[in-house]
Amino acid sequence: MRLLGTMALGLWLAAQAAGAETTTTATRDQLIRAQVILDRAHFSPGVIDGQDGDNFHRALWGYLAANRVGTPAPGGLATLDGPAWAALIAADAAPATQTYVVTVEDAKGPFLGTVPKTTLALSKVGRLFYATPIQALAARFHMDEALLTGLNPGADIGVAGTRLLVAVPADTAIPPVALIEIDKSDDEVRAFDAAGKVVATFPATVGSTERPAPSGRYAVRVVVRNPAYTYDPKRLTFGRRSQGRLTLRPGPNNPVGTTWIALTIETYGIHGTPDPRMVGKTASHGCVRLTNWDAAALGQAVKPGTPVNFVGAQ
Questions:
Q1: Rounded CA separation 99/107 (Å)
Q2: Does the active-site annotation cover 285?
């Protein structure tokens, strides 16, 4: 088992001076560990990718603010400086990675192979399974596919018995959620308990210029796991209307992923996505898009009637 980022900050800084390759690896490993700790604390960075992106900085800001570490700068983004790093590793000293052996079940699928690109083509697929073992295993461990393959160069991920280095993501449920806040300014979903404490945050794609998310107070209507998706041109304003009404079957490559949290505003919901890398980076069709695992975690913590507030500007 390999432990990432367990050296003290001073040793990590010394490692940076050893050369560009060492610097790149040390920085990536530290970011992986920080992202894993945030994921386990339910301040989700989205995909664990070892990259220094906005989703990570936003999750870190939320974690520091919730745990009253220093005074996070305004703007919702935080930097992994010395105090932030010290706070993370003091709170969670568990390994960030583990060795995982690919099982027969992992390898056999079924898998789609190439995922159709159009709604019409997707509607003709029997069930929208994972495309490959890489996609399936990356989702299980909350990882970017590129990181999974990068940590395991030359490994045949689709073969039973292959040993892989993978992340150790969250394995505990979010506490019951009394309020969901969807911030259109920060592309973030925040979950609060009955005492008003933030118990989880998630990077999100919230609406678009063409079809902005609503404002105001609504509520959870129902939570559907493994939902089908219906494209109905009478109710939706995107897609090829001439194709008529289409139904896409359930699965992780369904456009709304593996969880649909319907809201008390027609056609709007919080849902997963088949491409977690793009959460917070591309527009949605008015709904609130999370990674599949974040949507599932939130769906398990809410119930019909849980208030949902849309705040901020698109």
A1: 17
A2: no
- Residue among 71, 72, 69, 34 at smallest CA distance from 51: 34
Question: Which among 42, 57, 142, 271 is annotated as catalytic?
Answer: 271
Query: Would you state the structure tokens that stand for residue 254, as one six-digit string?
Result: 């369904």
Catalytic, out of 42, 57, 142, 287: 287
Spell out the domains of the chain, with CATH numbers in brackets: 9-91 (no CATH), 97-167 (no CATH), 179-311 (2.40.440.10)
Alpha-carbon distance 25 to 80, whole Å? 16
For 159-199, the pLDDT digits (tens) are 999 999 999 999 999 999 999 999 999 999 999 999 999 99
Assess whether 271 carries a catalytic annotation. Answer: yes
Using CA atoms, how far apart are residues 109 and 149, in angstroms rounded to an integer?
19
pTM score, two decimals?
0.88
Which of 266, 267, 283 lies closest to 231, judged by CA? 267
Going by C-beta distance under 8 Å and a sequence separation of 6 or more, which residues neighbour residue 20?
A: none
